[in-house]
Write a structure and sequence with these properties.
It contains 3 helices and 11 strands; from the N terminus they run ββββββαβαββββα. It is an alpha+beta fold. The chain starts with a strand and ends with a helix.
Length: 177
């Protein structure tokens, strides 16, 4: 189906690819109409988030869950009750071969990151420090250091940056030897 303008007359052509004569409708016979769609979406807060009615302009924090054509905002603790989703905390650890001076490595990280703080020896079993209060770097032996963190997007990004820093320092050490 397509619209054609023939000698100033708009004609809607409806071809059905049959052997019957084609049907032509003049523009006067075609009704014009407009459709308006409301693009608003509504999400309901449930359980813990619904206990307190928020003030106008107050931010509501939670998880937005879409089920069919309905939206619900719920707290993390309610996620397993109202959906088949569950949450877990993942602690990650990686041990990397590093034979350089631990103090030099810490100094390099202080140049990169805003927050690098030493940990007391009681809290760790040897020299250690924390990067952005998310990642713990421990001196395991003369040839190894380990990184420990709870997995989340920001901590994973910080750990990736520290691992890259370690590898770059190792490349620089081996290139000068």
């Amino acid at each position: 189906m397509f619209m054609a303008d023939i000698a100033g007359v708009r004609v809607l052509y409806t071809g059905d690819y049959s052997r019957e004569e084609d049907c032509h409708l003049c523009a006067a016979e075609i009704l014009q109409f407009s459709l308006y769609f409301n693009s608003e979406k509504m999400a309901k807060t449930i359980r813990r988030l619904a206990e307190k009615i928020p003030e106008v302009g107050e931010t509501v924090s939670g998880f937005l869950v879409k089920k069919a054509f309905t939206y619900q905002i719920m707290a993390l603790d309610d996620l397993h009750v109202f959906s088949q989703l569950s949450t877990e905390n993942i602690s990650q650890r990686i041990t990397i071969a590093y034979s350089g001076a631990f103090g030099v490595f810490k100094h390099r990280l202080k140049q990169i990151f805003e927050s690098v703080e030493s940990l007391p020896d009681e809290e760790s079993e040897g020299p250690a420090f924390r990067v952005h209060e998310r990642l713990t770097v421990k001196y395991e032996s003369e040839k190894h250091i380990s990184l420990h963190w709870r997995s989340d997007p920001i901590s994973d990004m910080v750990s990736d940056s520290v691992i890259i820093s370690i590898l770059l320092i190792l490349i620089l050490i081996t290139s000068y030897c």
